[in-house]
Design brief:
Structural class: mainly alpha
Number of helices: 5
Order of helices and strands: HHHHH
Strand content: under 5%
Largest sheet: none
Helix content: over 70%
Length: 103
């Protein structure tokens, strides 16, 4: 099967995963002058996805989100992770409190 056939057969309700090499090839087509609308139509890629890949490669040479974040964004992500972990710890302690109170 070709890449296009695999993309068309993908489940529309699930997020698509594109390999890094595929992303680079698509951006290369765009950078070589192929119109965005034609690239998107041929490969079934949303406009925002293509824009994000092109911008990422221009900025950092990578399409990975982690490589294209600012230090502030990375800090915010870390704080959110820590917040979720602390909330889970509080929930566990709330559930364990009645058990320890009986002893």
């Amino acid at each position: 099967m070709t890449t296009k056939e695999l993309i068309i057969m993908a489940d529309p309700n699930r997020p698509r995963h594109y390999e890094e090499e595929f992303k680079r090839q698509i951006v290369q087509l765009y950078e070589n002058g192929k119109p965005s609308s034609q690239v998107r139509a041929e490969y079934g890629i949303p406009r925002s996805t293509l824009q994000r890949w092109v911008q990422g490669i221009r900025n950092s040479g990578s399409t990975k989100a982690a490589d294209n974040r600012t230090p502030e964004e990375n800090g915010l992500i870390e704080l959110r992770k820590r917040d979720r972990r602390l909330e889970m710890e509080v929930d566990v302690l709330k559930q364990a409190a009645p058990v320890f109170a009986r002893k």
